[in-house]
Amino acid sequence: MAIKHHWTKEEILAIYNKPFMELLYEAATVHRKHHDPNTVQVSTLLSIKTGGCPEDCGYCPQAARYHTDIEGNGLMSVNQVKAQALRAKSAGSSRVCMGAAWRNVKDGPEFDDVLEMVRTINKLDMEVCCTLGMLTENQAKRLEEAGLYAYNHNLDTSEEYYKEVISTRGYEDRLETLGNVRKTNVTVCSGGIIGMGESKEDRAGMLVALARLNPQPESVPINALVPVEGTPMEEQEPVPIWDMVRMVATTRIVMPETQVRLSAGRTNMSREGQAMCFFAGANSIFAGDKLLTTPNPDVSEDMLMFKDLGLNVQKPFEKHAQRKSVEKEEAKVEALGEKPKWSRPGHKIERNLEAQGKKVKA
Ligand code: SAM
Ligand code: DTB
Ligand code: SF4
After folding, report:
1. pLDDT (tens digit per residue) in 340-352
2. Which CATH architecture has domain 9-316?
3. Closest residue to atom 4 of ligand 3, CA basis
4. Known catalytic residue: 57?
5. What's this model's pTM, rounded to 2 decimal places?
6. b/e for 308-339, b at 16 or more Cβ within 10 A?
7. 142, 182, 252, 261: which is the annotated catalytic residue?
8. What is the pLDDT of residues 230-266, one digit of tens each?
9. Kind of pairing, strands 150-152 and 187-189?
10. Where are the domains of the chain?
11. Can you list the pairs that 120-123 forms with residues at least 24 positions away whose Cβ atoms lie under 8 Å?
């Protein structure tokens, strides 16, 4: 089935504003067509470099200019990271996402260490994701060579509202990094935050920007703002669960193949609220008692919730394996001289065909 990219803000807003039950039903229907509704991916976050960031993101406790209580650290060692990854694996995680409070990646010994961390986690048979700020094309390539599976770089909100939240970089900078990641085989993880004082139009605007990417991001994290004392957003009201479910459902409908991740903010959600999010199409969570610097539900509580809901934990590289079988199908169709219907320009499928010496049709 062809993926629609040319969504308008009005179309997405109309979906977001549907009567709740209709929205839920429609999203659940799309979800079932594209995913196993009883499987959820579990990722673990690891803050490999905490605090002291020069950026001014209004939501972020790690920005040096805000006076928050977090304890800043230098870059973790490869051994520390390996130990944490093993802990995450034994707790059931299939992916480790390493976050650094950097504006952008700088070539040098610290980046070399991060590349070694990527190689090390890869050897543990886990998916590795990084979120390190802005990247050049060459840095994206080096991460790819080290075996990076995904790069997280959020658009966070609409282009219009972005200026209200961050002044030290622009939307274009974010899109440029996403473009650099897309030049490699590393999958793209990009989403945003709700509850920062943005309008519904801004929420729809962010989804337009993400859905128009071609290919759409392989994963989209939906965060509810965790208001942290000392940041400009410390007094924001908590996100109503209905808004979270609407946002997840709308994301699912406009990006049907994407893995939608219920990200920050789960400590404020009931199990019933989270169950509605899973029904509406969320199929990934961050597990572990800490996100990057703020609390997250207890892993044992999460596993109990999975048991009660009959949810299974996705195995590492399972989605990748699915993509591989699509590649095989494409290669077969290509061999017959037809243009594959699901071919995505510039996507790894086409590059793989090229690598196999097969012609990719325009
Ligand atoms: N420095 C890198 C960057 O900005 O891309 C990577 C780390 S940054 C902490 C990753 C993401 O965490 C942000 O894009 C934002 O979506 C999310 N985040 C940060 N603080 C948050 C908060 N208080 N509540 C919810 N999400 C938050
Ligand atoms: C994402 O979208 N959410 C995660 C991950 N990507 C890096 C980070 C959430 C951070 C929440 C605030 C904190 O713990 O510092
Ligand atoms: Fe720095 Fe990332 Fe936090 Fe912004 S979100 S202040 S770039 S760590």
Report:
1. 322 333 344 344 3
2. Alpha-Beta Barrel (3.20)
3. 57
4. yes
5. 0.90
6. eeebebbebbebeeebeeebeebeeebeeeee
7. 261
8. 999 999 999 999 999 999 999 999 999 999 999 999 9
9. parallel
10. 9-316, 321-356
11. 120/78, 120/81, 120/82, 120/85, 121/81, 121/82, 121/85, 121/96, 122/146, 122/147
